[in-house]
Amino acid sequence: FKRLGQIRLIESGLHLLLSILPAFIGYLGRIVFMVLKPIADWVLRFINRPLKANGKGSISEFKELVKTGFPLLLSGYLLGVYLVADQTIITFYVGNEGLGLYTISKLVMMAIPIFPTSLGIVLYPKASSIYGKEKSNKKLKFFFYNSLLINIVILLPLCIFLYLIMEPIVTRFFPNYLGGIAAAKISVLSCIT
Prior knowledge:
Blueprint: H1 2-19, H2 21-25, H3 27-47, H4 59-94, H5 96-111, H6 114-134, H7 138-173, H8 181-190
Helix pairs in contact: 1-3, 1-6, 4-5, 5-8, 6-7, 7-8
């Protein structure tokens, strides 16, 4: 679990570095990001896989893999559909301009959860280790409440700060998106929960 935590930390760092490419090279940066991110994730996990394949396998193993893997594949696909469904509906009912105004809100909803997600990635191996040693949920309560407290201590001031600076930042740097400020502020407040 410790190694998995390290791999996830490396993946998150690569994601962070690759995600700024669009700021420098535009849509080409987004394309590079979308191509390199899954390749880097796969390579990291392939190199560090805990179980190495030994042998050619069998039909029964293949069936078991399909039985286990297909629901995961389907849920991953449905998650992808879900992640763009809001944008599709907005474009359909309001048009491209409405979608553009929604962009700031969408960015907020993608950016703020980075901290809790990263904290979860870092803490998950430790929680798994505690549970593995103790075989009791009671030992995890202290761990859970501490991680919840860390999230609150970081997110509450961050969200308040972002709420307060949202309008001046958008006005100064993104004046074409002024109509999206209200939705972005609502998104900032919803990230507290």
